[in-house]
Amino acid sequence: MKICRWIDLVFFAFLATVVGCSQTAFVEKNASTKKSEAFYPLPEFAAPPTAEKIQTRLEYLFNEWKGTPYNGGNSKRGIDCSAFTQISYRQLFKMHLPRTTKYQVSYGKQVALSEIDTGDLVFFKTRRNGYHVGIYMGGNSFVHASTSKGVTISKLDSPYWTRVFWQVRRYF
Where are the annotated coiled coils located (predicted)? Predict the structure, then answer.
């Protein structure tokens, strides 16, 4: 009798593990498909973070990633602008952003530059079909993965960024 209960327990534990793993694998498999480019929030804050709290988080994040080279990757060995914003939003705000700038600009709410707030994403058209994205830090500054300097902070009112500015989007 005890052996049968033990076998039943082992069987149900095994079944739960297999079902749990297959669901996880399904989610991970689907996470790499184009359909996963959709924006969806992860668990939300009890209250929206204040501009000061966001700025503090962004400064910490910048210090963690400062100088990481730009090379189209998504790690400290090298990162591109959209991977940097995606990782930043996940770490700082518990939000999932799509992987590419093309999809990131499709979500959130577009706001006027005059209404920009700390944590908003700033988008730029750098070439005919080239786009760039960064995170507004306040004080007319934004953090981003630059092709020439790696992860850095730039000013929105510099001649280059003023010329290529496209739009601001808010996600929370």
Answer: none
pLDDT digits (tens, 9 = 90+) for 30-46: 333 344 455 555 445 55
Asked about 96 being catalytic, the answer comes back as no
4 is catalytic: no
Catalytic residue among 4, 21, 81, 96: 81
Give the pair of three-digit tokens for residue 79. Answer: 């990162």
Domain ranges of the chain: 1-32, 39-170
The two structure tokens encoding residue 44: 């939300």
The answer to whether the predicted template modeling score (pTM) of the entire model surpasses 0.90 is no
Residue type, 97: L
Q: Are 172 and 134 in contact (CB under 8 A)?
A: no
Which CATH architecture is the domain 39-170 placed in? Alpha-Beta Complex (3.90)
Residue 33 zone, left/alpha/beta (φ > 0; ψ -120 to 50; rest): beta
> What percentage of the chain exceeds 70 in pLDDT?
72
Per-residue pLDDT reduced to its tens digit, 51-100: 899 999 999 999 999 999 999 899 999 999 999 999 999 998 889 999 99
- Rounded to the nearest 10 degrees, how much is the dihedral formed by the CA atoms of 20, 23, 29, 33? -150
Angle at 43 between CA 153 and CA 60, to 5 degrees: 25
Identified catalytic residue from 4, 21, 96, 132: 132
